[in-house]
Amino acid sequence: MRFLVGHLEGRQAVYLVRGDKAVDVSARFPGVGVDLSALLKSPDLMAAIREASDLYASVDVAAITPALPVERPGTIICLGLNYTDHIKEGGYDIPDYPALFMRGRQSVMAAGQPMVRPTCSERLDYEAELMVIIGKGGRHISEADALDHVFGYTVFNDGSVRDYQRKTHQWTPGKNFDQTGAIGPVVVTPEELPEGAAGLKIESRVGSEILQSSNTGNMIWSVAQTIATISEYTTLEPGDFIAMGTPPGVGHAKKPDPRWLRPGEVVDVEIERIGICSSPIVDEADLHKVAAE
Fold first, then answer.
1. Which end of the chain is more exposed for a tag (fewer CB within 10 A), N or C?
2. Residue 43 belongs to what H/E stretch?
3. Boundaries of each Fumarylacetoacetase-like C-terminal domain copy (predicted)?
């Protein structure tokens, strides 16, 4: 199944996407609510939606303004180095344990919303990533069982402010500027995709300019391995997000000059069979001007 959380005519709801049309499942199933939170925790509700024979797709997907799949995400855990060629272009050694960091709620936003270049830096970079949404929580999850804990997969653009990322070994500042991490819009449940969402083309673009192009089959740590590794040290909960790292081609590594995102551009991140996450780039100073008017 393909889910889209979004706004239509002033109301937020969960939609089941079928091609270019969608069904308002929040209206049909009152227990669904306005985001994926209830579905993450209710296999019975998911089964009811899956088995319903009277769900008629009547809403144009293009008319829906995307919202975050989970209005208040739980823990957002990201892999920093998960494609060998990206590790090499960044000048790092290939690690023997995943490079993990965390993002805060203010740093992420829905697909379609502006990605903000901060006033303190022009070095806003893009990172196309597969994102996992946890459905069933747990601790000490085995690799063999890990995929049973996945609710679905979506698209993530891990916007990174590179000079601030390099100010500390922990990467936290550069990965947590407000409104730099775009998520969505569509969440695809596992039965629609190859196991662990492996073998899917992943790409980032600005217009016709291809910035990154790779395949999720090139990830060093698979989704199952990553879930097992993270659950060694923390309890995963429904609504936690895991970003699976980016392939080569990021802006800071472009030669002869870095390729930073510029206000007025629109960056698209696409993962085969999942969808496209589009983000217009705006300057933070321009946002303040608009707010003051």
1. C
2. helix 43-51
3. 75-281
What is the pLDDT at residue 14?
98
Within 8 A by CB and 6+ apart from 211, the residues are: 126, 128, 203, 204, 205, 249, 250, 251, 259, 267
Q: Exposure of 57 by Cβ count < 10 A (0-12 exposed, 13-18 middle, 19+ buried)?
A: middle
**End-to-end alpha carbon distance in the chain:** 43
> Looking at 20-164, which runs of residues are DSSP E strands?
21-24, 59-60, 65-66, 76-79, 100-103, 108-110, 115-117, 124-125, 128-134, 150-158, 160-161
- Name the residue range of residue 12's domain: 2-66
Please report, rounded to a whole number, the percentage of residues in the chain having pLDDT higher than 70: 98
On whether the CB atoms of residues 181 and 108 are closer than 8 A, the answer is yes
Last residue of a domain, one of 43, 66, 89: 66
Cβ neighbours of 231 (radius 10 Å):
21
* Tally of structural domains, the chain: 2
Q: Are 55 and 28 in contact (CB under 8 A)?
A: yes
pTM above 0.90, yes or no: yes
